[in-house]
């Protein structure tokens, strides 16, 4: 695996760890977010912008089995975003939603599978 693929792999695994942690999401709200709705939008973009499992980079960073794991997480993530809609004012409200709790659980499961 080349350096670019390794960097990409590491970033996706760290993002799963972030999504699996309500505490880290709260810290992001406190330390980074200053405007309403910003965190939710950022979280959605962080994942969706780089989820291209058919790309050369993705295939060089993850095995076929790992891509299935990430695809399963992506399905849970997209389903939750559809249920949640377009605007959530802050991380606390996001964390209170059942749909987002499913993202946290799916992220934890994927993270453990990819980074035991």
Task: Tell me about this structure.
With 116 residues, the protein is an all-alpha fold. It has one domain. Helix content is 75%, strand content 0%. The chain contains 7 helices and no strands. Helix 1 crosses helix 7 and helix 5 runs antiparallel to helix 7. The longest helix has 21 residues. The radius of gyration is 14 Å and the shape is globular. The mean pLDDT is 93.
Features:
single chain; 116 residues; mainly alpha; 7 helices; globular
Please trace the helix and strand order, writing H or E for each element: HHHHHHH
The number of E-state strands comes to 0
Question: Any idea what the shape is?
Answer: globular
Number of domains: 1
The amount of helix comes to over 70%
Alpha carbon gap, first and last residue:
19 Å
What's the tally of helices? 7
Largest sheet: none
* Helix/strand structural class: mainly alpha
Radius of gyration: 14 Å
In short, what is this structure?
The chain has 116 residues and is mainly alpha-helical. The chain has helices at residues 3-19, 22-31, 38-48, 56-61, 64-84, 91-95, 98-114.
Topology, please?
Layout: H1 3-19, H2 22-31, H3 38-48, H4 56-61, H5 64-84, H6 91-95, H7 98-114
């Amino acid at each position: 695996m080349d350096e670019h693929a390794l960097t990409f792999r590491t970033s996706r695994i760290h993002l799963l760890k972030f999504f699996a942690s309500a505490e880290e999401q709260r810290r992001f709200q406190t330390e980074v977010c200053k405007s309403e709705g910003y965190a939710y939008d950022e979280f959605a973009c962080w994942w969706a912008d780089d989820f291209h499992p058919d790309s050369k980079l993705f295939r060089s960073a993850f095995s076929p089995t790992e891509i299935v794991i990430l695809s399963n997480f992506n399905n849970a993530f997209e389903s939750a975003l559809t249920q949640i809609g377009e605007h959530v004012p802050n991380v606390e409200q996001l964390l209170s939603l059942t749909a987002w709790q499913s993202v946290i659980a799916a992220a934890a499961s994927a993270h453990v599978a990819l980074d035991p």
